[in-house]
Amino acid sequence: MNPIANEEKMVKQGAKDKYPSRVKDKPAVLKRKDAVLYSEWSEQSPLSREQSDFYEKNGFLVLDSFFSEKDLSEWRSELKKLNDVYREEEAEHVILEPESREVRSVFAVHDNNERLKQLAAHPRLVAIANYLLGSDTYIHQSRINFKPGFTGKEFYWHSDFETWHVEDGMPSMRAFSCSISLTDNFQHNGPLMVIPGSHTKFISCVGRTPDNHFKQSLRRQEYGVPDPDSLEMLSKEGGIHTITGKAGSIVLFDCNTMHGSNSNISPDPRSNVFLVYNSKENKLQEPYSGQKPRPRYIASRE
Amino acid sequence: MNPIANEEKMVKQGAKDKYPSRVKDKPAVLKRKDAVLYSEWSEQSPLSREQSDFYEKNGFLVLDSFFSEKDLSEWRSELKKLNDVYREEEAEHVILEPESREVRSVFAVHDNNERLKQLAAHPRLVAIANYLLGSDTYIHQSRINFKPGFTGKEFYWHSDFETWHVEDGMPSMRAFSCSISLTDNFQHNGPLMVIPGSHTKFISCVGRTPDNHFKQSLRRQEYGVPDPDSLEMLSKEGGIHTITGKAGSIVLFDCNTMHGSNSNISPDPRSNVFLVYNSKENKLQEPYSGQKPRPRYIASRE
Fold this sequence. Notes:
Helix content of chain A is 29%, strand content 22%. The first copy, chain A, is of the alpha+beta class. The mean pLDDT of chain A is 89. The A-B interface holds A 149-150, 154, 156-157, 186-188, 190, 193, 228, 231-232, 235, 240, 242, 244, 260-268 and B 149-150, 154, 156-157, 186-188, 190, 193, 228, 231-232, 235, 240, 242, 244, 260-268.
């Protein structure tokens, strides 16, 4: 179904699209219409008041030394196994680098891997998720990203929510990512960059989404790409924050925080586990693009 | 002439190649056979003793606020002119980005542009050059590099000397680059990265150089590329230093210091003027590749 027909259908159903994107010829900057923090802070909250306020204001939060060296070494050996397996053997939920065919991402690790399933259910992470989203939560998406040394490619700026909304039918901004660093993040190995405060605005992108483009888009982004003027405006307002730190640190960032990373020519690889927690009150609908939903290893519909 | 025939010819002439590269099937790490600093430090030297020692040990030196905002604004408007002209009009000494066809480098700026000619002859720069190289000097190469915002591509690791030696016939390590920052260098906009101490070793690279490949190589490097193991060894020994700082700072780095930069997806462009000073006692010979010399806008033979 084309996006306009779909918009008409949704309007008929009373399901108005709060965050239209990829439907107009010009980009637009819309206000966020959802809360960022869905709970009142109290002494029992799993984050300090300062941490909580920082997250709400900036759209991200770094927690250093969240995991121990012992945890990390277990996951690293798991990762090595995954990397070795999937370099040899194609699998639907494994994305390779466009040029080198090195493993770039493995999806649905919380489903397919016992150790990473335990990680996603980690009591302190779940407590933070339930606190931030003010409800019970579930894993919307999980993946491991490998950014190899020497040839790690960039990830261009994007809001995850833009894609999850348009392509997966996530109705509201009530989800966040937890990125767990399995390797040290230096200035020089293409660390995560975020634009503080960008989560308060929704950048409506131009261009229609072709059918079944997701396989390609996970390697190289072509749709749902924010325009340069909007990015410049956001970065002028909030600056660009480069997240460096030791392995074992975690970064929590709102589903609409603009983020990306540069390439990595250094010998130091970067590996991260990404867990996306979504509120059980924000379950996926029909994709707002009017297209058929992406596979479950990318967007869980439980 | 093929490289082996050329090697024989050079041996006959008594011109032994101190730094063979692109002649063997395996990479090799050779010791530097030349001085780094060619003068004795004294109170009259144009660098302090600490600066001088730092340069000799690490192979680079940053001098903050070397140029004033007034100098910078003049050069910036000159740059804007150059960028506007060459985006429209192809020229031999102008290199475009491989994909976007944005201007990536303009060569021979000290020859073709009055303002940049004055810059190259700046008395304090010339005094530093004569001090570091222990003789009179001349400009071996000059260029402006533009790294646009959003789409700036990486420059992979390389030693300039490896190329200047093999492709231009520079006999000894008695040259250095001065990079003048016309824009602020942040962590996030693909700043220069150097490996401290790497100038004391020569990485002999594998692979022969095809004829006339230089046009392509200035856009994307394929020959004279150091191998991953050597890079890992160098970076384990010296680390990787990311050079950030304000516009107006300059970086001096030895011709054999391993350097490179990551991509730049941020909105902040990076522009630098590079001036390469060579000792008048280190004038170019026949290229050690046995091939014909590259054009003068890349390697001056005065």
